[in-house]
């Protein structure tokens, strides 16, 4: 049993482990800031616009984070995320507007509908690989877009979508201010979704996503049930996306087929790519950057998409792994330099903090282990 | 009782018969080597046993249970783990995480998707210690040199707590000194009582490790028995080592 000498290291090296302790200080601080933010902002003129942007940030970053789990962490090129967002938006829109449901109740149905839709498209895509997943999911996107334009009146609104969707009733809270209600409900959903995704990143399930991406044949040979794992992935990422879609519909009071526009798809994709493909913080930072960039480029109107396209191309060349990993390394290096002088060669702090399932794109060369994996 | 048992196993790819009505059994704690020229169907045989590419017909039993229709993940969880000919790892993950994920999902019994339990941590760490990677936990698997990648692939298999191991060319691609190191490592693993099936071209490794061996040729069994006997078999020498090597006394096929 002892062919190799027992090396001195006999403990688990916590830095190498996928689990992390939450930085509670930062969480509490940010939560307090987020809670106080609107009260402070609304004291100033134009403050309500900033609150509006924050609501947009909460909802879009949920979509970007969910999509990143599929695209970045698991390396499955599904482009159905906006269609699932729309499923959530339309479900609650139709239920509350045409059927007269209480918006809170119909909103609760939105994530369920999106999850069911995701499982329906997830099942066939589980048997497909690479570009065929792109084709199938884009076909689903296009199908829904057509239906949203040409479908029955209660869904298509004659091609204009749903206009005049009731707002979420405040029930007397916030003096009936629906922006504040949207802000706080958006914040709550944002915190829950982000927390759930953070948990996934640092637990076996998240590592399994990355393992299947790195090498599928190897991963299933180590006991990973890819069918169940991927079904969970599709369902989970759709759940919060659908919920965000539903909240968006009630917040804006409308949902239109323009949500299916290519520019919207590229925009969310850019949040993930610019922020940091496959990393936990990337899509959150990316959502903030992109929403900011969009506002900054507002005067360019049609050229805005071009500008975002250029930013994407630039990122691909300059920092392919995205802004978040770059910042993370900078901070790690800065902290390392701050520590009492060790030997000059000591680079302990320079190693990128390995966030479990993070890092690098899905273009791992590890594939091609097994000849084929039929029946999966 | 046989641990791994193949009964008339056939694997067909369209018109090509890669493995043809092959039968053999491997007893508990045995070290069983499978050799044969390239294209003889060795890796295909492993793919059918591990469930990666199910057999066309025939039966495969593991501890008496039919597994020829089982999925790879459930076969692994039954206690039958394999390594691959192409050295593979979860490249974007650390050495420790590679072992942990295998320990969580590969061991039998229930495991949580949301937490790494103590038993999984222990299994992962024990496997890394056994192969000598316990002080390399933080390294990114993709950056490891080939010998360490091979060790890691063995460690992830061990982390699943297998009762039988399929090793596909464990010392392929290694230089002479690395090869010896790895042979010693595999011998150490065998000593723990794990049943081992090993595909190997390097005769030195086969002779050092195997108690019994099987020669495959065109998907069929050519010979089976203790290495000393099988390697003297004239047909084996002819097919496997080639006529020239036969004259030169057959000192190791590809070394």
What does this structure look like?
The complex is a heterodimer of chains A (376) and B (255). Chain A has helices at residues 24-41, 47-73, 81-97, 103-125, 131-150, 153-156, 178-201, 204-214, 216-220, 226-252, 262-276, 282-296, 303-318, 323-338; strands at 162-163, 254-255. With 376 residues, chain A is mostly helical. Chain A has two domains: 12-39 and 49-260, no CATH class; 263-338, no CATH class. A two-stranded antiparallel ribbon of chain A has the order 1-2. In chain A, 45% of the residues are buried. Chain B has 255 residues and is α/β, with parallel strands linked by helices. In chain B, strands 6-7-8-3-9-10 form a six-stranded mixed sheet, with helices on both faces. A four-stranded antiparallel sheet of chain B has the order 2-1-4-5, covered by helices on one side. In chain B, a hairpin with a 2-residue loop joins strand 4 (57-62) and strand 5 (65-66). Residues 249-255 of chain B have low confidence and may be disordered. Classes of the chains: A mainly alpha (376), B alpha/beta (255). The interface between A and B is large, with 59 and 63 residues.
